Structure formats: structure tokens, C-alpha cells
Amino acid sequence: MRQILLNQPGEFSTSEQPRPVVGEGEALVRIHRIGVCGTDLHAFAGRQPFFTYPRVLGHELGVEVVEVAPNNLGVAVGDHCAVEPYLNNPSSHASRLGRPNCCEELKVLGVHVDGGMRGFLNVPIRLLHKSEKLSFEQLALVETLGIGEHAVERSAIPAGETALVIGAGPIGLAIAQFVQAAGATPVVADLSAPRRGFVADLGIEAIESPGDQLFDFVFDATGSKASMEKSFDYCAHGANLVFVGLVQDTISFHDPSFHRKELTLKSSRNSAHAFPKIIRMIEEGRIDTNPWVNHRLTLRNTPTEFAGLRAIPDLVKAVIEVDEGDL
Predict the structure, then answer these.
(1) In this structure, are strands 185-189 and 205-207 parallel, antiparallel, or unpaired?
(2) 170-207: per-residue pLDDT in tens?
(3) Would you say residue 111 has pLDDT above 80?
(4) CB-CB contact of 197 with 173 (8 Å)
(5) Which of 15, 77, 80, 140 sits CB 3.0–4.6 Å from 62 for a disulfide?
(6) Given CA atoms 109, 278, 129, 15 in this order, what sign does their dihedral have?
(7) Rounded-to-integer distance, Cα 148 and Cα 59, Å
(8) Is 140 within the bounds of a domain?
(9) Are 36 and 59 in contact (CB under 8 A)?
(10) Which of 327, 300, 296 minimizes the C-alpha distance to 309?
(11) Alpha carbon of 118 to those of 32, 35, 106, 136, 325: distances in Å?
(12) C-alpha dihedral sign at 127, 132, 134, 135
């Protein structure tokens, strides 16, 4: 099978590797679609925390089960699945609290261990979530949507509220959709005119900057130090601020203002227990994934085309297609 390895920042290599042998508790899956996210782009640029090289990227996966270990139930050959890429230790402190997404020993496919930029991959059966209705491309979007779902859950935003979402990338869009699903109203801020246009076409208010507007709920999905520090200024007294984007730096804020407003600051990492819910919401039409993917590339062309993704001005979501020639 073909495998794409990120040797170091800015350098991919392609190799032929043997097809994995399925192990106890695992299923062998054939990769069909791989979503490209900010984590992958930052890893390529050498700006991703929690990351080591060399690494096979790919954690947003739409897959087909081709082999299942004996005496393991839950999935069958031919099932189409989304992969929950979070390898946690069920006995860890965070996992026992019901928060496996921030497990002390967490390993994420494509970040801490090799991921899905290849033809086949062994995956623990418990991390496969099947659907009889969704396309492989939709299944590859479930992980991104999970980030947004978890951030909104962390905020505990009630129906009828208005939330500021800073950043109109895939994570920001996911947050906006789940804010709507909670019965609240998102306002999305982004400096990019093409991205604001995309958001407006979805029927969501899009602005360049909040200016003097204050909000009770603010989400920052930029991964930008400057934006994250500025986001405090958009918080009303008693507001909730959720940092969703991740930056490899120290964030600082003006403590007297923070205390005066009695703000609640939370981080949001990965997602927890959300994949079945998200798959169901897409199947029911409550989450619309149709507008998301506006660029596609093949696995074999990824080493030469990946660097150019950041230069696409209206890029919302890129997806890598794995065809028969990559197996």
C-alpha cells in the first residue's frame, strides 16, 4: 500500500508498505477519505504542539472495514465508518472522570502515532462509528464537527443567546453550526472576505471585527496568539470564553479586567462521546456538510500539492481521496 510520511517540516516522502495484520480488538480498515485540518497544516509548517517527526498524518478519516479480528463484535466487513482518533487509557484519571479527550496518556492518530495517509490502517473496534447513510467524505468530517460540538458543550450556552465565533475555518464553522443546534445565534468574525462571504451564504451573520460589541459567549477558533488575547475584549461582564484553537505560545491577559468582569475561561480539547450524536444529526439533516469541502486532492499527489493548500484564499476544507491505485 502507498504511505505518505511527513519526515520533517515541509518534507513528505512516499513509500510502499505491507498491508497491516489485524490484531486482537482491532479492525483493518481501507481508507477512502482523509480530511485536512489545521493540525496537519501546522505540523507541515513545524508549528504544531504535541508533535514529533517523522509522522504519518491523517486523523479525519472516512473508512471501510475490510477485516475484523476473531471474536470481536460491533462492526462487520463492509461497514462504512468514521474513526474516532483518540487513543486513551481507560484507567487514567481523566478517562475515569468521563473525559477521555484530555486523558493524561492520550495519543491521537496522525499526531502522536501514525495516522491514515495510507491505504489501510488497523483501528481499535471501539473507535469505529458506522453509518449506513453517510458518504465517506461526510464520515471524514465527523471529527472536525466533534471539535465544534465539544466546544459548544463546554460553554453550556442556552437557547436564545448570541455567541461570537472568532475564526471562520472548519472549526469555527462547526462551532457556529452547533451553536445554532443549541437554539442560539452565532456571529462569526474573520478577517478574510472570501470566508466571510462563505459564512454569509450559509445564512450566518459574518463580520470583519466585533468592534465595540460585547458578547456573553465567545469562542476563539483561530489558533492565533494575538486573536486569543484580543478575545477578552469582546467579553461582556460575566461572559464565558472558550479557547478552541491551539497556539504554541503563552497567552496573557489583563488580570484586573478579567476579575472585574468575572469571566469564565475554558479550554476545549478534541471531543468526548460525540461521534454517534454527530452522525445521527448529519443523517437527520440537522447539520449540513454539503458546503464544506471546496478542494480535493489525491493521496498520490499530496506530497506535491499539500504546501499549496495554505495559499488558496477561499479554502474552507480540503479532502484527500484515496483511490484504488493507492492500495
Answers:
(1) parallel
(2) 999 999 999 999 999 999 999 999 999 999 999 999 99
(3) yes
(4) no
(5) 140
(6) negative
(7) 16
(8) no
(9) no
(10) 296
(11) 10, 13, 22, 15, 11
(12) positive
pLDDT at 35 over 80: yes
CATH number at residue 30: 3.90.180.10
SS (H, E, C) the chain: CEEEEEEECCEEEEEECCCCCCCCCEEEEEEEEEEECHHHHHHHHCCCCCCCCCECCCCEEEEEEEEECCCCCCCCCCCEEEECCEECCCCCHHHHCCCHHHCCCCEEECCCECCCCECEEEEEHHHEEECCCCCHHHHHHHHHHHHHHHHHHHHCCCCCCEEEEECCCHHHHHHHHHHHHCCCEEEEECCCHHHHHHHHHCCCEEECCCCCCCEEEEEECCCCHHHHHHHHHHEEEEEEEEECCCCCCCCCCCHHHHHHHCCEEEECCCCCCCHHHHHHHHHCCCCCCCCCEEEEEECCCHHHHHHHHHHCCCCCEEEEECCHHHC
Closest CA to 304 of 33, 38, 44: 44
Residues 38, 43, 47, 51, CA torsion sign? positive
What is the overall mean pLDDT for the chain? 95
Q: pTM of the full predicted structure?
A: 0.93
Residue 125 confidence class, pLDDT cut points 50, 70, 90: very high
168 and 233, same structural domain?
yes
Q: What is the CATH number of the domain that holds 187?
A: 3.40.50.720
* Residue type at position 140: A
With bands split at pLDDT 50, 70 and 90, how would you rate the model's confidence at 72? Answer: confident
CA distances to 67, 115, 307 from 11, in Å: 32, 17, 9
Cell numbers 477578552 correspond to what residue? 232
Q: Where do we find the cell 489525491? A: 298
Query: Is 92 within the bounds of a domain?
Result: yes
Regarding whether 83 and 18 lie in a shared domain, the answer is yes
